[in-house]
Amino acid sequence: MAAAIAAADKWRPGLCLPRSKKSGRGRSCIVVTSSVSPIPTVLVAGAGGRTGRLVFDKLKQRTQEFSARGLVRSVESKQKINGGDDVFIGDITKPESLSDAFAGGIDALVILTSAVPKIKPGFDPSKGGRPEFYFEDGAFPEQVDWLGQKTQIDTAKSAGVKQIVLVGSMGGTDDNHPLNSLGNGKILIWKRKAEEYLSESGIPYTIIRAGGLLDKEGGVRELLVGRNDELLKTDTKSLPRSDVAEVCIQALLFEEAKNKAFDLASKPEGEGTATRDFKSLFSQVSTKF
Length: 289
Prior knowledge:
- With about 290 residues, the protein is α/β, with parallel strands linked by helices.
- It has a single domain (about 40-285), classed as Rossmann fold (3-Layer(aba) Sandwich).
- Helices cover about 30% and strands about 20% of the residues.
- The protein is built from nine helices and 14 strands.
């Protein structure tokens, strides 16, 4: 009997299995009212980045809930995170290079890709002054944060992805924000354009506009959600990367997180109560974009 049950791929209501010889003739019928849902497959784009790797590692630790895949841009990035067959290499601006990562079906996509400004050579911090920044060819915000994210969203839609979690940045309501001047990249403007595109894509989404990222311990602070950069006007406008990563994962678990966009920060460590109830956190959000 047990062997017959183990051999069955799925239990169905009214499934009848043959009795063992010791039990006599006839069949035993098992009435099953529910079946086990398959574990969702989640692709983390930008898994080689500091926050992306945290999301990827957290998913891999929760094997009973998720099947994790990573997307990185180079062999070096894959090696850096000790990636195996579950990590794919692709150029987010080229749809054809993403096919392997999406092959076989993806349930959710977490986007953590971002252009990264670099300091121009020759800057000497000992002499004071401010460094100048630039973006490498092919890695400007317009190419990465707009066209690259658009490509990922379009690919996900074609692949039937059921939810996209997109991590952006606070400050997108201010065209004159200092981050936009770095390398003249207008990075927040392009991020905001991608966020709007996602919100209009028809795919269930969660847009997380993170505050200043801290390399601090996660899970010990009270998290705060806001809208339209209101948190930037307060003293609570930063949070640990690990907390951003955890919110990405929690957004995959609660319906209350879907089709919402919000700013995310935290109280200083030691103030308030560490956030544990993410359903309530997401329920505080009413903004769609």
